[in-house]
Amino acid sequence: IRYFTYPVYRAFLQYLYTDEVDLPPEDAIGLLDLANSYCEGQLKRRCERIIRQGITVDNVAMLYATAIKYQAKELEEFCFKFSLNHMTAVTQTQAFAKLDEGTLKDFITKAAKNGAFKS
């Protein structure tokens, strides 16, 4: 059993009872994890939209890997496009350097197919 923070559990219960989500982007990752655990597809999509609001050059690589982990396709695609638009800055971040080998290889292959390395 995974343990989540109080704000995440509270947001999950709030969603179940009111169909509303009010959570900052930094807590929405935990809620995405919890929603994934309970197969709450609609809540996952809402979390993806919330997380997108907090994406920066410094956290996009971590969020890209998170999106892949939780099969959050919309978030994965958004992070990928954001990364393409800020490729030089993103590839110089600590988060990018910490990507696991498989994720990094897939990212580079996908970026190449999208013309990121054309001169």
Structure characteristics:
119 residues, mainly alpha
Quick summary:
The protein is mainly α and 119 residues long.
How does this structure look, described?
- It is a single chain.
- With 119 residues, the protein is mainly α.
- It is 70% helix and 0% strand.
- The protein contains eight helices and no strands.
- The longest helix is centred in the first third of the chain and has 13 residues, at 6-18.
- The chain is elongated, with a radius of gyration of 15 Å.
- The termini are far apart.
- The relative contact order is 0.11.
- The model has no long low-confidence stretch (mean pLDDT 93).
Explain the layout of strands and helices.
Elements: H1 6-18, H2 25-37, H3 41-52, H4 60-69, H5 73-85, H6 87-91, H7 94-97, H8 101-113
Helix pairs in contact: 1-2, 2-3, 3-5, 4-5
Tell me the number of helical segments per DSSP (H or I, 4 or more residues long).
8
Calculate the terminal CA-CA distance, rounded to whole Å. Answer: 49 Å
> So what's the overall shape?
elongated
The secondary structure category is: mainly alpha
- Mean of pLDDT: 93
Describe the main β-sheet briefly: none
Helix content: 55-70%
Approximately what portion of the residues adopt beta-strand conformation? Answer: under 5%
Give start-end ranges of low-pLDDT stretches.
none
Q: What's the total number of strands?
A: 0
The ordered string of helix (H) and strand (E) elements is: HHHHHHHH
Radius of gyration: 15 Å
